[in-house]
Amino acid sequence: MVKILSIILVLCICGVALSAQEKLPPLESKLKISIDVPFFPFWDTVKVDRIKNRTIQFGGSATPWKSTAMFSGLTVPRVIFTESDVRIVFEGGIMKTHDENTSRTMGQVHAVIEGAIWFVLVGSDGFFGQEQIPKITRGMNFETDFLRRSSGGQGWFGMKFGDFNQDFVVVRYGRGYVWTKGETHFIIPDIDNSDWLPLYLEQFRTVSLSAEGTARARRISQSVRLDAVEYERVIPSPDPVRFGENHIRDMWLRTETEVIPFSRLRSLRGVVVLTKDFRNQNRLMFLNDYSSVQVFLRILFN
Q1: What letter does residue 8 receive in the DSSP assignment?
Q2: CATH number 1.10.10.60 given to 2-23+31-301
Q3: Helices and strands of the chain, counted as H and E runs
Q4: Edge-to-edge strands of the sheet including 289-290?
Q5: Percent helix, percent strand, percent coil in the chain, to nearest 5
Q6: What is the DSSP string of 18-54?
Q7: How big is the CA angle at 198 (ends 195 and 201), to the nearest 5 degrees?
Q8: What is the pLDDT of residues 109-118, one digit of tens each?
Q9: Helix segments in the chain, DSSP class H
Q10: What distance in Å separates the CA atoms of residue 10 and residue 212, rounded to the nearest whole number?
Q11: What is the DSSP letter of 195?
């Protein structure tokens, strides 16, 4: 019920915004390409303690869960292709972070494609992620490395009203599958080429609901998107306390504000993305995500 009311609320807000905005002059339906370069390399990921304690597969049912880290490395800009009824998004990168005791190397990619015929929207997305933490634990005569791999995707259908390049409102219902696998590697003096040993393998079916709306004016545009996801284990856990919950949920609200600071240089724009989570960010079990505040430089090609 909360999900349905939240989606209705967002749709109402978007509808009011669409009717109140100063309208842009009509544009031809043509391909637009935008490249979003991040200013601040902050990402949300799983706390190292959860990995050391081997409770990462519990999702948000054990605490603490989230850690916001500053990564350095090759952060691939977000690339968005849009036409009136088609949108394609690519994002990802290879990033590293260091603290007093550990370092992380993270690589991931996420792709989204969706299109509409009349008012009917169909789409899909997919992701792959890998994270490695060398020497995460140290004993008297050994050290261990940690490796996490995850992938998954979903398909959806829904309704779309408006133009992806101007004002629009979208609702989606999707189903998918995700999995994540953790492994450890022992480093023992005088023993070479030891195998990676499994720590966990988790598989989930997903059901998602989302609502999104965008209103554009001459110098500013505002997007609002609400996502709700439910994860169900493919193989039920016999003991949720020891092995994790069989049903976990996510819900988050993400707003994106785009500003055109120079009227004669409309191809350069600033973008601020704010994320508010209403649950436990269980998606971090599978894929690292943007932090609650992100700033991008957007370069637009018409």
Answers
A1: H
A2: no
A3: 3, 15
A4: 66-70, 42-46, 289-290
A5: 15, 60, 25
A6: HHHSPPPPP-----EEEEEEESS-EEEEE-HHHHHTT
A7: 150
A8: 999 999 999 9
A9: 2-20, 48-52, 240-243
A10: 8
A11: P
